[in-house]
Structure to design on (628 residues):
């Protein structure tokens, strides 16, 4: 369960302060598929970065599975990112000069749990349908394949939340549909909470709940 | 274990620059150590000369030793000093070439009032005159194979048809490096006459000097020891300046002379100046290579920002990132330091075993300390610079930049 209460976030731009998020309050239950929409600069990425424990906030509270994120030290935050949250980015966020299998295994290097890393990575690649590409270098893959690698990496530590920031932004229509189908399948089969930032109406149509944000304020929160 | 694996995977990106840096740093550290070893030799020779009670004396050097007449006149001058009330003794090298188990050594007579004080306590054995009815020798240089300290050995002349033999007991050995006192240098520039000119690396057997051992050494030389071309005339403590001057005048007719106190003062200045003179070049090279090193560290972190962002989003904390970043660059420094230190110690051991000679150099633990200290300073600078860079590094900013 994700609970944000009166979250405010400011950015320094030169001597000025930009108020990116204004008293944002939000609850996302386990297993929800949520899209976050809005124009550029509305605060979408800022919001998901805070949800994903990538960035801090200036005031308010954020409770994640009953634990206050604002009180966490850096090591606890990184452990949370590792174990609970998986990220899927528009630009795939993969180490392009390394192999597919290395990229998928990467979170396991920082995990305190002992895994059979390669075996688990192959399982994830099977799940996303590209186990046969395991030994290839990432830069040899298509956009769709790269995004599947990113999804496999996101799942490998058994995360309960996937944060996807415009996951189809760099993909063609057909591939976008395949990726969205994969995310929906993960959401429905494993009960993983999926939070997607998007401009794409096709993507937002797949979500059961839409949050529309503008100028750092949640304007609408609609259940489909 | 996992992070160690990740660390080595991360090195792949800049192996070529690290390998290049490795060889550059090795070369620079060797140059630094070479210069420092020269300083150690100069410093040690100053210590030995000072310990040898050579103060209050007059150093002489026949500057035309191949002129027989000149040598004869010098011999007569030295002979005339016998019975001179202000002269305590004349010290000079008396030796013969001998061999032990096909290894050549100089059998040298030593003054028991000078040498034990000059070299100090031996690391193995002791300065002894006789034991079990045999003369005792102290080895300077390589200990002969199969003849450890405490054993007896028979010395033979290297001169063909010379059947002279002497059974001796090896009572001790000098420490490495075997800095053997050898008079024979003189410069008209007084400041150039420093103690390091009087010590060489050699293989020697020190035998206590007395009338009997003098005869033995003479026999080893077929009845003719080398002429006295250089040495030190030691004054008595109560010798007046006038008396010293008189002796100086006698000797200076047939040899170049210099008060040993002048040598000692020149040596002191030389020791304190030597670091200033020897170290600038290697220090400059070290500065340049350290700057290159730091630049590579900075560049590698800069180039890896995207990778570190991905590490961050997958659960790597900043502390781990910092350790990985610093170590990935400093691994070269670590390997270079270890290689240099091991190389120095191997050089030292090889020299101590006589596998080769390192004239006018001393390699020892001081070189290891210097190398490690230099490496530590560079390491700390790299860690500091990496820390500054990573502190300013914002994965979120990097994500935004990539998205744009």
């Amino acid at each position: 369960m994700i609970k944000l209460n009166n979250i405010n976030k400011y950015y320094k731009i030169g001597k000025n302060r930009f108020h990116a998020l204004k008293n944002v309050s939000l609850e996302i239950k386990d297993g929800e598929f949520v899209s976050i929409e809005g124009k550029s600069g509305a605060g979408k990425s800022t919001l998901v970065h805070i949800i994903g424990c990538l960035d801090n906030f200036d005031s308010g509270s954020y409770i994640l599975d009953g634990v206050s994120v604002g009180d966490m030290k850096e090591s606890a935050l990184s452990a949370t990112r590792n174990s609970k949250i998986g990220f899927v980015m528009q630009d795939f966020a993969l180490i392009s000069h390394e192999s597919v299998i290395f990229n998928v295994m990467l979170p396991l290097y920082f995990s305190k749990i002992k895994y059979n890393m390669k075996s688990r990575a192959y399982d994830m690649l099977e799940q996303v349908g590209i186990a046969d590409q395991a030994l290839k270098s990432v830069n040899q893959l298509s956009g769709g394949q790269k995004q599947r690698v990113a999804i496999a990496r996101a799942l490998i530590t058994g995360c309960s939340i996937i944060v996807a920031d415009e996951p189809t932004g760099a993909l063609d229509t057909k591939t976008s549909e395949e990726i969205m189908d994969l995310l929906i399948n993960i959401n429905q089969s494993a009960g993983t909470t999926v939070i997607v930032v998007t401009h794409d109406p096709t993507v937002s149509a797949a979500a059961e709940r839409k949050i529309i944000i503008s100028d750092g304020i949640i304007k609408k929160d609609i259940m489909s | 274990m996992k992070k160690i694996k990740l660390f080595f995977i991360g090195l792949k990106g800049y192996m070529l620059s690290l390998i290049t840096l490795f060889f550059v740093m090795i070369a620079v550290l060797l140059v630094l150590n070479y210069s420092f070893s020269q300083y150690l030799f100069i410093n040690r020779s100053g210590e030995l000369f000072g310990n040898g009670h050579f103060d209050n004396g007059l150093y002489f050097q026949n500057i035309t030793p191949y002129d027989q007449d000149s040598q004869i006149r010098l011999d007569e001058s030295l002979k005339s000093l016998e019975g001179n009330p202000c002269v305590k003794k004349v010290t000079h090298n008396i030796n013969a070439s001998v061999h032990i188990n096909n290894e050549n050594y100089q059998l040298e007579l030593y003054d028991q009032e000078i040498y034990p004080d000059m070299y100090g306590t031996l690391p193995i054995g002791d300065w002894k005159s006789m034991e079990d009815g045999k003369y005792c020798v102290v080895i300077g240089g390589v200990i002969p194979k199969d003849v450890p300290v405490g054993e007896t050995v028979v010395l033979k002349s290297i001169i063909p048809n010379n059947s002279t033999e002497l059974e001796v007991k090896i009572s001790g050995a000098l420490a490495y490096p075997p800095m053997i006192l050898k008079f024979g240098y003189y410069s008209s520039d007084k400041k150039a006459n420093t103690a390091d000119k009087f010590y060489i690396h050699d293989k020697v057997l020190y035998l206590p000097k007395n009338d009997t051992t003098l005869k033995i050494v003479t026999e080893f030389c077929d009845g003719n020891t080398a002429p006295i071309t250089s040495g030190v005339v030691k004054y008595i403590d109560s010798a007046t300046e006038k008396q010293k001057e008189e002796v100086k005048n006698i000797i200076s007719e047939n040899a170049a002379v210099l008060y040993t106190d002048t040598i000692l003062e020149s040596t002191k200045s030389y020791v304190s100046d030597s670091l200033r003179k020897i170290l600038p070049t290697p220090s400059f090279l070290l500065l340049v290579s350290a700057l290159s090193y730091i630049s590579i560290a900075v560049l590698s972190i800069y180039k890896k920002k995207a990778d570190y962002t991905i590490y961050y989003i997958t659960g790597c904390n900043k502390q781990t990132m910092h350790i990985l970043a610093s170590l990935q660059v400093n691994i070269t420094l670590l390997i270079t330091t270890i290689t240099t230190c091991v190389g120095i110690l191997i050089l030292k051991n090889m020299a101590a075993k006589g596998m080769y000679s390192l004239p006018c150099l001393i390699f020892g633990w001081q070189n290891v300390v210097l190398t490690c200290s230099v490496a530590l300073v560079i390491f700390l600078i790299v860690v500091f610079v990496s820390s500054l860079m990573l502190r300013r590094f914002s994965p979120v900013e990097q994500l935004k930049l990539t998205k744009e």
Summary: Chain A touches chain B through 34 residues (CB under 8 Å). The longest strand of chain A covers residues 16-28.
